[in-house]
Amino acid sequence: MSKPVLRVQDLAVTFSSYTGGLLNRHERQLRAVDGISFDLDPGETLGIVGESGSGKSTLARAILGLVKVSRGRVMWRGEELTGLDEEALRQKRKEIQIVFQDPVASLNPRMTAGDIIAEPLWTFYPNMERLQVEERTRGMMKMVGLLPNQINRYPHEFSGGQCQRIGIARSLVLNPKLLVCDEPVSALDVSIQAQIINLLKDLQKKLGLALIFIAHDLSVVRHISDRVMVMYMGQAMEVAEKASLYRRPLHPYTNALMKSVPVPDPKLAAAARQESWLKGDMPSPYQRPKGCIFHNRCPLRVKRCEADVPALRRLENGDWVACHRAEELDLSIQVPASG
Amino acid sequence: MALLRVSNLEVDFDTPEGLVKAVNGMNFEVAEGETLAIVGESGSGKSQMVLSFMGLLAENGHARGEALFHDKDLLKMNPRDLNRIRGKHIAMIFQDPMTSLNPFLTIEKQMAEVVMHHQGLGREEARSHAVEMLRAVRIPDPEERIKQYPHEYSGGMRQRVMIAIGLLCEPELLIADEPSTALDVTVQAQIIELVSELRKQTHMALILITHDLAAVAEIADRIVVMYAGEAVETGSVDDIFYRPQHPYTRGLLASVPRLDRESDDELQAIPGNPPNLLDLPVGCRFRDRCVEAVEQCRQRPPLWVTQDGRSSRCVLPVEGGEILEEPAAVEQTA
């Protein structure tokens, strides 16, 4: 057993907003992330999945110290990150990097690909030789599947998939130990998505990176994750090994997410539609349901779910779930024989 | 009889970098009550093609060819006549439900406007019609919610409102441009199901534009697959999913991550990137990314067509098909 590189303990992020007029101002609290805990081993990939508003991006930002944490701790290789001052935290970012969702918007349109990739080097190693920087930059471009002779081109000369490769090269140029990918493929075409996922997987193996891979779609994280955490309204509903999660989801919400992935087969799609049973939208974050936060959309709820909050608890096989009925429900997925 | 018949449609844009050829000679038909899906990646020209015959191209865009709706050419129509058709006979839903609604007007105002303009209804009638429509798209408590502003709706609800607005005048043709792409997977399924159900009830024809082949598996009757501004394959939904002919269609199908199969470690990707529309390759446009490319692909590939209306533009023959367009000789020596 290796020691985890990252430990997140009871992490919470709360945003405040104000309603009402000048005289009757009310503060409202939005619990974007609400008590998330997990460990991440070196070289491991944790997939995080949830609908928009589930708090997955805020969680990523909290780990990097990009938003203020209101409760809990982030431990990086035995050292607490929460509460570090600006400069100390900045130094840690050599080891923890992020790839953003929108590959085009997250690149400065007035900088060349080479400058974008090299910028972290200039920031952290201002005395580095020019030639050395260029060599490293070209090496990174090659590693992510770009041509080193494209070094002087601008982002608009690249396609979406290539821009995401630039973003990945930039995040890896400092040799980080952890890469947080916040929906890195959601904005890309299907045929390109697969390229980027395969690339990240390759790089991870080559560089021994730990990876946090965020997506809103369970089918996308499957190929890259070792474990998957399913989030809903800021809380973890289920954290499980990939093999068991995709064979037998424990939480009805995980099951609902799996059922809503479109199947590229007209007959199977029609059959899947009969079974789709998640109705309605996520409730307003200001009006969190009592009891289980998922109960008002859950077709399998019982009386108890409306009153008691289910704790995230560990089952015999080591997976975690926050559902009263996890043991009695059988949500196994039937995989048809291929052919 | 075809409700909409598009022939030899071309769209290009004048840009400072040169002429961008977005759509190159598209031909297709939509029959009454039919659901046609147009599938392609970003930059394949699928949206611009539809915008062109809706008269919504950007100023630097030009369209040529024909788009006959009830035998009248939409491309040659003056704006007044086109306005009578748009919204009433042909309605359109856009991708982003956040930006398609006016944030300063209540839902009621935005909905009533449509029927008051096109059907000359009074305010009260228009309002009750709008409430009915909201109920049809399953907005709970429509009498109250109609008084609200767009920001009080969630993303999925806003797209339902857009659909309701599109359907207010009972159009003969609804064009939905990536109606579910900006939404969560869980909501996507609901929206696609809703559109398909409403289509059955109203017998309207539907053009569904999407980059996601899997999303249309259940509801499309026929599918046109576009690549770099042209149709590479056309066929019935079963043909496309069970007997794809063109290597691009096969690649698209293989790159969809699936949960209903045992996982293999490597996801199948189509290598490379789509071509630059400023500088389209001579010959087959998919050649550089195609795993089955041969020397012949340097020529413009032939167009295969079968009796039952499927077609493929590729050197690979289609069973039971004949060549409609011979492969063109190399247009210029490379």
Structure description:
The complex is a heterodimer of chains A (339) and B (334). With 339 residues, chain A is of the alpha/beta class. Chain A has a domain of 235 residues: Rossmann fold (3-Layer(aba) Sandwich), CATH 3.40.50. Chain A is built from eleven helices and twelve strands. In chain A, the strands form two sheets. Chain A has an eight-stranded mixed sheet with strand order 6-7-8-3-9-10-12-11, sandwiched between helices. In chain A, strands 2-1-4-5 form a four-stranded antiparallel sheet. In chain A, strand 4 and strand 5 form a beta hairpin. Chain A is globular and about 70 Å long. With 334 residues, chain B is α/β, with parallel strands linked by helices. Chain B has a domain of 149 residues: P-loop containing nucleotide triphosphate hydrolases (Rossmann fold, 3-Layer(aba) Sandwich), CATH 3.40.50.300. Chain B contains nine helices and 13 strands. Chain B has a nine-stranded mixed sheet with strand order 6-7-8-3-9-10-12-11-13, sandwiched between helices. Chain B has a four-stranded antiparallel sheet with strand order 2-1-4-5, covered by helices on one side. In chain B, helix 3 crosses helix 4. The N and C termini of chain B lie far apart (44 Å). At the A-B interface, helix 5, helix 6, helix 7, helix 9 and helix 10 of A face helix 6, helix 7, helix 8 and helix 9 of B.
